[in-house]
Amino acid sequence: VSDSGEGRWTLKAAIDTGVPAPVLSSALFDRFSSQGESEFADKLLSAMRYAFGGHVEKPKT
Questions:
Q1: Would the pTM of this model clear 0.70, i.e. be above it?
Q2: 25 in helix, strand or coil?
Q3: Segments making up each domain of the chain, as ranges
């Protein structure tokens, strides 16, 4: 699942200010891992993101 960068920015801000963000970091790392080989769950998540928010996948380079 591609990311817009907002999660990275938020996690960086949390680190810079010393605020724990374990759920955010876990979600971001799961997103990174989903950018490799696509499993059914990742495809389902991508379809749900598109259906609810119009988020399209970035083409792989």
A1: no
A2: helix
A3: 6-53
